[in-house]
Structure formats: structure tokens, C-alpha cells
Write a structure and sequence with these properties.
The complex is a heterodimer of chains A (259) and B (149).
Chain A: H1 2-28, E1 33-37, E2 41-44, E3 50-60, E4 66-76, E5 82-93, E6 98-107, H2 109-115, H3 118-121, E7 124-136, E8 140-152, E9 157-161, E10 165-168, E11 173-184, E12 190-200, E13 205-215, E14 219-230, E15 238-245, E16 250-258
Antiparallel strand pairs in A: 1-3, 2-3, 3-6, 4-5, 4-7, 7-8, 9-11, 10-11, 11-14, 12-13, 12-15, 15-16
Chain B: H1 2-39, H2 41-46, H3 50-70, H4 75-95, E1 100-105, E2 108-113, H5 115-148
Antiparallel strand pairs in B: 1-2
Helix pairs in contact in B: 1-3, 3-4, 4-5
Classes of the chains: A mainly beta (259), B mainly alpha (149).
């Protein structure tokens, strides 16, 4: 009986030593692992989506490999609607190696506008849920997560149509000049086309016009649209239907009344 | 009278040896803890209360170990050894929050999944319990045989 008991004792002691040594060294080696997040960059993809790129560098100088390294970013609005989600997975980072990868996320503004038009005209805050997960020594799962907020600048902030100015065009038509102004608060340059349809008080289409816009990021835009409208149909009040056609989004009609 | 004096001298010698053994074991265990605590220092800086948790564990463990050593040669030694193994199991379960430890500092929420480590530690502790029970059975068996002959 004494020998089996002694064998159990020896086996238990050896396993305890192995377990504690492994655990302590795995935890201790974390201090030699370096994570660096580079400068985030924005770009436009060929299919006109906004691409966020975040360079991530992992320098594993620890004693063990790191397994299942995973970075996940979820961007949502203040009401919790998920706008985009990006994930980067590295199956293994061997000890002594440095790996640089790019964590990408794409935003389709058209998808964004399906949830709310406010993104075009009002600045807001977007919630970012960032999660970094890994397996220390390929067996101890660790996950760190944080919530951040990011300002969203509206590309058509304070979009307004000014007072209509009429000038004589010919006997039957007048030329209406409608001033347009807005501020591009977005982080991308806005180029595209604005189409305006002018209706009178009895919902009759008076005329249509369009203009090309070019508004660099964080700059204000002032321009105008000219429409040839029938003199007979002009009324004191009515409304405009405005359509925006840009590489990033198509939106309309935005109804703005006049008079 | 001489025999009684000799008997008390032997008993004192035995107690001294036990105490010395217990002291050496306690010092060695504390030495191991001291070395390991240096490696675990980075965690102590990040996780509040980690140092205290480990210290309480070490104090109770060393206490049970010394008591077990002082009571060696009696059935109580096996009780204390079993208690020590059970204490390790319960303390690990409570201090590791069932294996999934979650802590928040500043704006970062950190989750560490130690279920595998906990499971292995519990199995090893159960092996320790089994060993103590076997030792107790063996001790009682030996005592019975001694009385019989």
C-alpha cells in the first residue's frame, strides 16, 4: 500500500510543479509581448465604399507562441444599430516573431442611409466596440474589450437652398437660380451631382436642373442650380425635390418647401 | 523513574524533529512563493487584489501544512492533509471565479478563461484527497495490525 501511495504523491507533486511553472511562465512572458496600433487610414475602394485600415503590429518576444489572435471592431450608432463589423484573425504568432497585419473595415454609406438620413445632414457620434482576443501559450484564452466613440461628420451639414431669383429667359420661361450651401464635415472629399426638381403649390413640375459639386473634406460649399421654369406655373409657394448622386451614396428625394 | 525520564526525552526529541520539519517545509514553501511572486509581479500591478488573494492562500496553506506536520504519526495528520487538498479546490474555484475571471480597469474589460487550468488543478487536488484517504486507511490498517500482534 505504501508504494502506490508514494507513487501517487510523486506523480501529483511533479504535475503540480509542471502546472504552476507553465502557468507562471506563460503569464510572465506576456510582458514581453508588444502590441502596436498604427495610424488609422481611410481610403476609397473601387466599389466606392469607405475603407478604414488600422495597421496592427504584434511582437512576440515571450516564451510561448500566441494562438488565435483576433481583432474585431464593431461600429454602431447611438441606438445600437450595427453599421459595420471588421475582423482580423492570425492563427498563430510564433515566439520571437514580429507580425504586422492590417485590420480593415468597410462602410457603405448607402447601407448607413437605410437606417437614418441624419448621417448626411447632422454630425453625430458613432460607438466603436473593439475586442482583442488571443490564446496565451495557445491554451489560455484572454480577451480585452473596450468601447470608444468616434465623431461622424455629416457630408451635407446644414444643407440649405437659398432664396429663388428669377430672371427672364424667354417669353414663356423664366430662369430660376437657387443658391445651394452646405458644409462637408465628413472625412472624405465629396464630389457628385445635385439634381433639383421644382414643383408649384399644385404639385405641377415647373422645371429641373442640376449642378456638379466638389466639396473637399471639412470645407464649406456654396453654389447654385439654374432651372428654366414655365411662367404660367410659378406660384408663391411650392417645394423642391433634391437628389444627391455621389460615388459614396445616392440619396433622394429630399423635399424642401419654399415660399 | 529513569524510564519515565527517558520516555519524556524521546517525546521531546520527536516534537522537536516535527517542529523542525514543519519549519523547514514552511520556509521552503514560502521561498517558492517568494520566487514565483516576482514572476507574477506584472499581474499584481494590473489586477487589484491579486497579491492579497495569493497571500491569503499561502498563509492558510502553510498553516495547514505546519499543523499536518506537527500532527504526523496520528490520524489527524491525514485529516489536515485532506483539509489542505479540499481548501486548494475551494479556494481556486472562488478566487478564479469559476474559471472565467473578468476585471475592468479604466475603460478596458479583460476576460481570462482559466477553466482548463482550474480543471487540471482540481483533478490534481482530488488526487491529493485520494492520497490522504489512502494514507489514512493505511495508517488505521497498520495500527490495527500492530494492536492485533
Amino acid at each position: 500500500m505504501k508504494i502506490p501511495i508514494r507513487m501517487i504523491g510523486i506523480a501529483t507533486t511533479v504535475l503540480w510543479i509542471f502546472l504552476i511553472a507553465f502557468f507562471v511562465s506563460a503569464v510572465y512572458s506576456v510582458k514581453d509581448v508588444r502590441f502596436n496600433l498604427g495610424e488609422p487610414q481611410t481610403d476609397i475602394t473601387p466599389n466606392n465604399k469607405i475603407l478604414f485600415s488600422l495597421p496592427v503590429t504584434i511582437d512576440n518576444k515571450g516564451y510561448y507562441n500566441i494562438g488565435s489572435f483576433n481583432v474585431t471592431t464593431e461600429i454602431s450608432d447611438e441606438e445600437g444599430f450595427t453599421i459595420t463589423r471588421g475582423s482580423t484573425f492570425i492563427p498563430i504568432i510564433e515566439k520571437g516573431r514580429e507580425i504586422t497585419t492590417t485590420h480593415n473595415m468597410m462602410i457603405d454609406v448607402n447601407d448607413l442611409l437605410q437606417n437614418s438620413q441624419d448621417y448626411l445632414f447632422n454630425d453625430t457620434e458613432l460607438e466603436i466596440h473593439e475586442t482583442i482576443g488571443m490564446k496565451l501559450a495557445e491554451v489560455i484564452p484572454v480577451q480585452a474589450s473596450t468601447n470608444l466613440s468616434m465623431p461622424w461628420g455629416a457630408p451635407l451639414y446644414n444643407f440649405t437652398l437659398g432664396e429663388i431669383e428669377y430672371t427672364t429667359f424667354n417669353l414663356t420661361h423664366m430662369r430660376a437660380t437657387i443658391p445651394i450651401s452646405f458644409e462637408n464635415h465628413a472625412f472624405f472629399d465629396l464630389t457628385g451631382n445635385i439634381q433639383i426638381y421644382m414643383y408649384n403649390g399644385t404639385n405641377i413640375l415647373l422645371g429641373e436642373g442640376q449642378t456638379i459639386i466638389e466639396a473637399p473634406q471639412h470645407a464649406s460649399y456654396q453654389g447654385y442650380v439654374e432651372l428654366d421654369v414655365s411662367i404660367m406655373g410659378i406660384s408663391e409657394s411650392g417645394y423642391f425635390e433634391v437628389y444627391f448622386l455621389t460615388p459614396f451614396f445616392n440619396f433622394g428625394p429630399l423635399v424642401i418647401s419654399y415660399g | 523513574m529513569v524510564e519515565e525520564k527517558k520516555d519524556s526525552k524521546t517525546r521531546l526529541q520527536k516534537i522537536t524533529i516535527k517542529a523542525l520539519k514543519a519549519t523547514i517545509k514552511g520556509v521552503i514553501f514560502y521561498g517558492i512563493y517568494f520566487v514565483l511572486s516576482m514572476f507574477l509581479a506584472p499581474i499584481s500591478e494590473v489586477v487589484p487584489g491579486f497579491q492579497q488573494t495569493i497571500e491569503i492562500f499561502v498563509i492558510v496553506y502553510i498553516f495547514l501544512m505546519i499543523i499536518g506536520e506537527l500532527t504526523s504519526g496520528t490520524i489527524f495528520q491525514h485529516f489536515f492533509n485532506t483539509a489542505k487538498a479540499l481548501f486548494v479546490i475551494l479556494y481556486l474555484i472562488f478566487s478564479l471565479e469559476g474559471g472565467i475571471m473578468s476585471m475592468t480597469f479604466q475603460n478596458v474589460n479583460l476576460v481570462v478563461d482559466l477553466r482548463l487550468f482550474l480543471m487540471i488543478a482540481i483533478l490534481l487536488s482530488l488526487l491529493g484527497v485520494a492520497k490522504s484517504v489512502l494514507k489514512a486507511v493505511n495508517f488505521l490498517n497498520g495500527k490495527a495490525e500492530h494492536q492485533h500482534f
